[in-house]
Specification:
2 copies of one chain form a homodimer.
Chain A: H1 10-15, E1 25-29, E2 42-43, E3 53-54, E4 58-61, E5 75-82, E6 97-101, E7 113-116, E8 120-124, E9 127-130, E10 140-141, E11 152-154, H2 162-171, E12 175-179, E13 183-189, E14 193-194, E15 205-206, H3 209-219, E16 223-230, H4 234-246, E17 250-254, H5 259-271, E18 275-280, E19 284-285, E20 291-295, E21 298-303, H6 307-326, E22 338-342, E23 353-363, E24 366-371, H7 380-384, E25 387-391, E26 403-408
Parallel strand pairs in A: 5-6, 13-16, 13-17, 14-15, 17-21, 19-23, 22-24
Antiparallel strand pairs in A: 1-12, 2-11, 3-10, 4-6, 4-7, 5-9, 8-9, 18-20, 20-21, 22-26, 23-24, 23-25, 25-26
Helix pairs in contact in A: 3-6, 4-5
Chain lengths: 409, 409
């Protein structure tokens, strides 16, 4: 039995992600780039808008022409033309003149303000009355006010959101360089594991980890390859690892949690060409027997076999490494940490970071976090909760009523 | 100019979703079902686990054999066999006997408890010493303890999460009935709008709404069809609406926000066969000029042309209708509402529901919501924030320091 006494802390485990480099770039169509990670800064090569634009239906004019205008003392303004959407006006506005303009229309040369149609009245086809003083720039978006030419609008390493797709459309960046989606192989091991399409006989259980891990990889922006189920046999596991590793950027072996399987996994990882065991065991619960190795400059994981443990380790430990392969640079504008109030005491060991499944619900002015209790190895604990809380390694348990950071799960 | 005086409240607008029926069902592979909506209850046809299972490496025995055992007074137990992973033991355990068992192994008939290997010592190949009393069911997951036969595990109308994929794998439900992804057509209108791959000349702007709405539809689990850009021309808009509607379950016309375009859209909607205008105008800001019509029993939207307004109306108003088409039944186990503290006073009109873009950040023990200021029609306000707050129609403005519900954006 291999020892897991020399476990490392979670924070030290996560530092090893810097051992690995992002995957290659590719050019993709912007409209398919949601959740892709930018491999370049996106710089505006135009002013947006590219012209002074009206934000209202009304009349474009020189604000000075209306100074002092009021209900009792309207300004009389000559109509010099009409602005057509999507076209550059072929006339100028001077003091005392105005042009009809629709929302989004381009201000004619000479105009610096738009008075809303609600504050005007038509006298005849050549003249309007204006009942309100307009300020310069009122109801106008200035050229370059939205985005300036040469401004860096989206940064390398950012995961593109819907809003960013909008920015790319505005800039006409129809193709952009992004990091390829990292390919992650998954191998499930264990003599007792069978494929979900098979009928278990006594002592067998269906393979869950391949499918939950696959779903988490795809959700995180990777591409999962399901390499199948391998019996607890050194040679078989070695061969499938070697083969799968060729076609992927990261490999996950979801181990049987029994001692024997754990040993096979470590031995196989050691035998892979150019391999090195980075750590064996992290001081977290669940997930202590997690192994990280490196071969061919790719991360290879041995994850615990328990379904909930494998999911939690993926979320907390593996995912940051996947982000590293994706080229993600941490966004400063992300959704903030959310906290909740713990509804009962929880024990935890000093020196170990614990992740507890919780059911979150709104209780008046706070969010309550109710720990989901259940034996290790039960699957149903993953469906009964909707969050995780983290108990720091320097904390020995938490009292009911403590404020805890919550993590969607 | 059509009047928007008879606007309806947001809550009344949302009630109209019941006018529309979910789309058809289809059978899909469970491994591709993440975010799909179940069109059937999923009922367990087996006990999980299907056998009493050990949660530890150790010895399976009758707990009674160890009662009274301690460090100074070990119990001496005969080894009657060894459990192999994935196989049914072909021997029985009686009082005074035990069998080696790995984590996940099937308990032999007669055994009701597992003593951890750490609490035993091997005497010779036929006998162990046990240093601790084992309780019945200790370190054992009972048959059916995880999921019971005939139990409803996943409900019709639920959007499948990674955890649910795990449940489907465990049950061997390799194909499941889900609602098809609703197909949503998008038409962008406006004489000034050009495709992002074109170079704008003065007065023109690139089409953003097609792409931001498309991204939001796909993120929400629909399939977007980009029907293109249409000039402000009644006949052209009518023909493309009629054609697109044939191939989709919902249609969105992102209108120019100018008066002219708005009129065309309403007139076209009225002329579609079997059509009815449901409402014209909602008392929300932004998004007041939102139109809902129904034709061929499908919802058809006229959305404002401003990029930020169209996105907010999609998120707040259109999305619940899309969920209705998807067959979603509201989940009681969803992530709770999160609140933040407003960092400055905000005005709002009584009788109108306002959605304000905010930048959220963690400040000590609370989340601060800083309103993102900027003129209506600016695109950059959508990228500067990371959330929305809602100001209720019965509230006239909010003071700095108020607690507000936040919505990811």
């Amino acid at each position: 039995m291999k020892s897991f006494f020399n476990v490392i802390s979670l924070s030290n485990a996560l530092k090893y992600k810097d051992l690995f480099k992002p995957v290659e770039n590719e050019s993709i169509e912007f409209s398919k780039s949601c959740n892709a990670v930018l491999a370049q800064d996106v710089i505006s090569d135009i002013d947006i808008p590219d012209f002074d634009r009206s934000t209202m239906d009304g009349y474009a004019l020189c604000a000075e022409s209306t100074f002092g205008a009021s209900n009792s003392n309207p300004a009389y303004i000559n109509i010099a033309g009409s602005v057509t959407m999507g076209e550059k006006p072929d006339f100028k506005i001077t003091t005392g003149n105005a042009a009809e303009i629709p929302t989004g229309g381009m201000l004619p040369s000479g105009a610096n303000s738009v008075v809303m149609v609600e504050h005007t009245e038509i006298v005849d086809s050549t003249m309007i009355e204006v009942y309100k003083s307009a300020a310069p720039q009122e109801n106008v978006i200035k050229k370059g006010e939205d985005f300036k030419k040469k401004e860096v609008l989206l940064k390398k390493g950012g995961k593109l959101k819907t809003q960013d797709i909008g920015v790319l459309a505005a800039l006409g960046k129809t193709h952009i360089m992004v990091y390829k989606k990292p390919v992650v192989g998954i191998i499930s091991t264990g003599d007792e594991i069978i494929s979900p399409d098979k009928q278990p006989v006594s002592g067998q259980i269906r393979d869950i980890n391949t499918h939950t891990l696959s779903s988490m990889i795809n959700q995180a922006g990777g591409i999962s390859i399901q390499a199948g189920i391998v019996k607890d046999d050194f040679n078989k596991l070695y061969r499938i690892c070697e083969k799968t590793l060729k076609n992927c950027d990261m490999l996950i072996i979801s181990g049987g949690s029994s001692v024997g399987t754990r040993d096979y996994t470590t031995d196989v990882l050691k035998k892979l060409s150019d391999s090195k065991i980075i750590f064996q065991g992290i001081s977290i619960s669940p997930g202590k027997p997690t192994i990280l190795a490196k071969a061919d400059n790719k991360p290879i994981w041995g994850l615990p076999g328990h379904v909930a443990s494998a999911m939690i380790v993926f979320k907390i430990v593996v995912n940051p490494f996947l982000s590293q392969l994706q080229g993600v640079i941490e966004n400063t504008n992300k959704w903030p940490e959310v906290t909740a109030i713990l509804t009962r005491n929880i024990s935890s060991a000093h020196g170990r970071t614990d992740f507890i499944r919780v059911k979150l619900s709104r209780k008046n002015n706070m969010i309550a976090a109710e720990p989901v209790l259940g034996k290790s190895g039960l699957i149903n604990t993953i469906t009964r909760g909707n969050g995780l809380i983290k108990i720091d390694e320097n904390t020995e348990g938490l009292k009911k009523g403590s404020e805890v950071q919550i993590i969607p799960f």
